[in-house]
Amino acid sequence: MSTAPSPAPRHTALDALHRSLGATMTDFAGWDMPLRYASERDEHNAVRTRAGLFDLSHMGEITVTGPRAADLLDYALVGNIGTIGPGRARYTMICREDGGILDDLIVYRLGASEYLVVANAGNAQTVLDALTGRAAGFDATVRDDRDAYALIAVQGPESPGILKSVTDADLDGLKYYAGLPGTVAGVPALIARTGYTGEDGFELFVAPEHAERLWQALTEAGAPAGLIPCGLSCRDTLRLEAGMPLYGHELTTALTPFDAGLGRVVKFEKEGDFVGREALLAAAGRAESAPPRKLVGLVAEGRRVPRAGFQVVAAGEVVGEVTSGAPSPTLGRPIAMAYVDAAHAAPGTQGVGVDIRGTHEPYEVVALPFYKRQK
């Protein structure tokens, strides 16, 4: 019995540039992406203290336009999209009819009746299919724009100064979770003040043919401030320290937003019905009365690193499961996010461990996030 060959990985517009920089490449959601350029720890610390440059062109962009674009998105997603002001963005989710999370998303309102939905790479097709299916009966168009954009992020405390040196856009007036069209290094871009690192920073949506020029300009502008290229590995440790969920780890179709401690993104008060409403109302009720498990932070007392899927234990019983774990460069100790039974979820709970290959390593339960930048 022969198996079909897996499709060749897709390449971003910056692929040749990453290789010229000596990047270690890895398959991520069907894309060949830079995992690291040199040291993951150095890249992580650069973003925390100076600035890092990321290629995020694997993310999935979907444009929704038309007179009833907002109504379609209000029906298809759990958030209140109709209340997003022009030039602003919102974190939200798309759920199944049973309340399970299909993906977490950022929605940008680009114009009166134009929205940009940014999905995770591995879920982009699922989100596109769901939005297309849910568009029936709405005067709105769902367009696959994954090939229309490259996405470059500059993140870290030095990022505003670096970006200011190559754009005349009003960055001081650009709030967190807002986006404005502008020109960066001579390239037209949507400049968004968003990120997945826990630091101040920007995500720049540009045409793929302009990606290399923009990357080189930011590299030169950022060199005096200590900016370096950064791969997906440090993006993962940065988001983990910042307590940000990763789809497939903290978020899955088996969980509702309420299970994930993110019930705040579900807006029951918005007008009209939305997909998953009944199931999510029930999930909200369950979460209030007796949450099955809560998402918590765990900090190691020793040096051994927990990984996704490892069991959380207390008094010889399994009381939870690790969803993400890694050494934390900022804390200097291994950390993890885990779903833990409510009885063991309070910060400071004693006697909790992680089963690491048969040994119960002691861990401290802490509130998320592990790291919060000083404003």
UniProtKB/TrEMBL annotation:
Keyword annotations of the record: Aminotransferase, Methyltransferase, Transferase
Listed SUPFAM superfamilies: Aminomethyltransferase beta-barrel domain (SSF101790), Folate-binding domain (SSF103025)
GO function terms (MF aspect): aminomethyltransferase activity; methyltransferase activity; transaminase activity
E.C. number: 2.1.2.10
Domain spans labelled GCVT N-terminal: 16-270
InterPro entries with a match to the protein in the record: GcvT (IPR006223), GcvT/YgfZ/DmdA (IPR028896), GcvT/YgfZ_C (IPR029043), GcvT_bac (IPR022903), GcvT_C (IPR013977), GCVT_N (IPR006222), TrmE/GcvT-like (IPR027266)
Catalysed reactions, as listed in the record: N(6)-[(R)-S(8)-aminomethyldihydrolipoyl]-L-lysyl-[protein] + (6S)-5,6,7,8-tetrahydrofolate = N(6)-[(R)-dihydrolipoyl]-L-lysyl-[protein] + (6R)-5,10-methylene-5,6,7,8-tetrahydrofolate + NH4(+)
Described purpose of this protein according to its UniProt entry: The glycine cleavage system catalyzes the degradation of glycine.
Subunit structure of this chain's protein: The glycine cleavage system is composed of four proteins: P, T, L and H.
Name under which the protein is recorded: Aminomethyltransferase
Organism for this UniProt entry: Streptomyces fulvorobeus
Gene of this entry: gcvT
